[in-house]
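BUG: 3D viewer hangs when loading the predicted structure for this chain

Environment: internal workstation, default settings.
Expected: structure renders.
Actual: progress bar stalls at 90%.

Input used:
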Amino acid sequence: MLQLILHPARLCLHALLLMVGWVLLISDITIAQSQSVAKVVRSLAEATSPNSVPVPEPASPMPPFTVQLDPLNSPYPVPWNWVLANLTASPGTKVGHTQYYRSQSLISPDGRFAAYSRIQMQIDPDFSQSRVSSVLFLEDLRAGDLRTIAASAPLSSTEGSQLSQPEAAMAGTIAILIPIAWSEAGDRLLAREFESIFGSDIASDYAVIWDRLSNRTRTVAPTRIQYTNAVLLGWSQAHPGQTLFRAGNIGDSQWPLWTVDVTGQTTAAPSDRPQVFGRFVNSIWTGPQAQP
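Structure tokens produced before the viewer hung:
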């Protein structure tokens, strides 16, 4: 469970997540200036996750459309560029509106399943009251069946989630669920649930694991340790049935590695490395969507 700790160096991530505010305040800057700001923000992101761990490429790596920013400098970035673009597209607009984004599809090693996310952003004239939510779809390419996978993290509001909150209570929240890896046998799907709050330094990852044999979904994160932020890296190489996180406190020079099993049991893993399987595929629907 995410534990918030007051730390003088929290201003580092504060600066990163408040970049939304920066862009709103300088919405009249030129495109060239925007690119300069992006470079600065990217360097700040790298500073928030000190000892980065090399992440092996998937069978088919995620092809980038542009250099992607990520609030936690994750190797599997959420579409943060799109979030920022939506907030600055119509500065001063007094009417709220909604935008949609579809992630790339992650194909299982046996080619049977495809997992992808549909991300929805409700944009409010007061950016701190905007909201980003998502639905993770799992498609059986042989049978043609389609199902949804829900996270059970604090800010998750996916239909069917036991922790779903009323709409008004979710204003200002960010909960983006994207697939990042299959297991080697293709019997488990691993997804990253990134959660944050606009205008704050609250930001952390949860691992959402769908088991194909039991058709059961679990949501886990490091427990019984102190940290302000956790970054999901993939499956553990030493313990393939467990997930691997990097977690620590803002300002610390070293963020340790931790393995987390499906019950939340957390163990230090200083020499472990992440592993991921699957193949990312683009489609004509990938990226920003027209409003339905």
